[in-house]
């Protein structure tokens, strides 16, 4: 951390997860494109985007790709097939070979699902820093989101993020896709709250209509307003608007700098609440501001890279 952000502590290690692009591991052309895209993270999908009879082929392609590609700052996540499928063992073997930043578990409905994978990873020294992400995308997953999130406490703290999957959730609930996601908002908020209660990041669902960038922008703004850290993306065209909506805006950066500077001022030492331009600002706002500035530092460091 290089700026004003360093003088305040925040509860969760900040990472940029504004744009989390998913790529079918079977799709060579898409795989070749990801290193040229400004996304924060890439999910290499072995699950629903890969046909049953092509899973082995997809694993083979992904191994070769990850052994040769330089993903640089982009987090690498592999979405595997669920443990009750015939693909799970081989998918996990691939995860242990590739050692990505995280493994994404689909359709998680119970804490034990996370615990079992944490136990498997725990048997391998090389997988020490490997984290677990969980897709919350079924009615039981939403209902149990808090219990699943809390399981991060008992599984070596590997659980790091939730990703919402609205395609599966719509299928299971019968709620049709509609602008504003009115009837899904309560479920989305439940997942955000559960993630926050246990210090997890939380990523909003994909938007299927990748040509309608106006609708995508609206949905991203809504996701940001609901408290999501970023959005799962299916297409390169969605990267820039996601970075924009989930990244810090200029007015927010200016405000954060003002708040941190004011609280760092010795004249305010010992004060937990101050008046800035007619608004009450508490020390908790300074922590929030420091978190935002840490993200700005990360974005700047990336841009400054030769
Ligand atoms: C949806 C797509 C099949 C569309 O692909 P395509 O027809 O190739 O679109 P374009 O011609 O517009 O593509 C332009 C170029 O961009 C490349 N491309 C496309 N998508 C990606 C991508 N995701 N990553 C990287 N590059 C991408 C194309 O190859 C074109 O380049 P070129 O070939 O050089 O011309 C496709 O976008 C796609 O497959 N998207 C991802 C689908 C996916 O991963 N699905 C699984 C995750 S979704 C999910 O998890 C849902 C969740 O579980 C839930 O329940 O909600
Ligand atoms: Mg799904």
Automatic annotation (TrEMBL):
Keyword GTP-binding (UniProt): no
Keywords: Lyase, Magnesium, Metal-binding
UniProt keyword Iron-sulfur present: no
Cofactors: Mg(2+)
Coiled-coil portions: none
Pfam families: HpcH_HpaI
Gene3D superfamilies registered for this protein in UniProt: Phosphoenolpyruvate-binding domains
GO MF annotation, one: lyase activity
Residue ranges of every copy of the HpcH/HpaI aldolase/citrate lyase domain listed in the record: 18-236
Similarity comment text for this entry: Belongs to the HpcH/HpaI aldolase family.
Stated name of the protein: CoA ester lyase
Taxonomic source organism: Rhizobium rosettiformans
């Amino acid at each position: 951390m290089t700026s004003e952000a360093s003088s305040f502590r925040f509860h969760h290690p900040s990472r940029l997860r504004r744009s989390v692009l998913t790529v079918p591991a079977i799709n060579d052309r898409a795989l070749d494109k990801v290193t040229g895209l400004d996304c924060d993270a890439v999910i290499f999908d072995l699950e629903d985007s890969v046909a049953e009879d092509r899973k082995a082929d997809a694993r083979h392609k992904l191994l070769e790709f990850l052994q040769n590609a330089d993903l640089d700052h982009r987090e690498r996540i592999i979405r595997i097939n669920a443990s009750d499928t015939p693909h799970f063992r081989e998918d996990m073997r691939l995860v242990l070979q590739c050692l990505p930043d995280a493994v994404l578990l689909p359709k998680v409905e119970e804490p034990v699902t996370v615990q079992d994978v944490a136990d498997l990873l725990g048997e391998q020294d090389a997988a020490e820093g490997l984290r677990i992400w969980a897709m919350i995308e079924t009615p039981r997953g939403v209902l149990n989101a808090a219990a699943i999130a809390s399981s991060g406490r008992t599984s070596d703290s590997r659980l790091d993020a939730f990703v919402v999957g609205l395609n599966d959730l719509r299928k299971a609930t019968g709620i049709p896709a509609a602008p504003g996601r009115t009837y899904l908002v309560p479920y989305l908020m439940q997942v955000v709250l559960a993630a926050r209660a246990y210090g997890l990041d939380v990523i909003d669902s994909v938007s299927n209509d990748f040509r309608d960038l106006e609708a995508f922008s609206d949905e991203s703004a809504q996701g940001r307003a609901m408290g999501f850290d970023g959005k799962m993306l299916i297409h390169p065209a969605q990267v820039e608007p996601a970075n924009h909506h989930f990244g810090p805006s200029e007015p927010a950066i200016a405000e954060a700098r003002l708040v941190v500077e004011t609280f760092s001022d010795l004249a305010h030492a010992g004060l937990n609440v101050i008046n800035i331009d007619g608004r009450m600002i508490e020390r908790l706002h300074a922590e929030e501001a420091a978190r935002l500035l840490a993200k700005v530092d990360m974005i700047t460091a990336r841009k400054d890279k030769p």
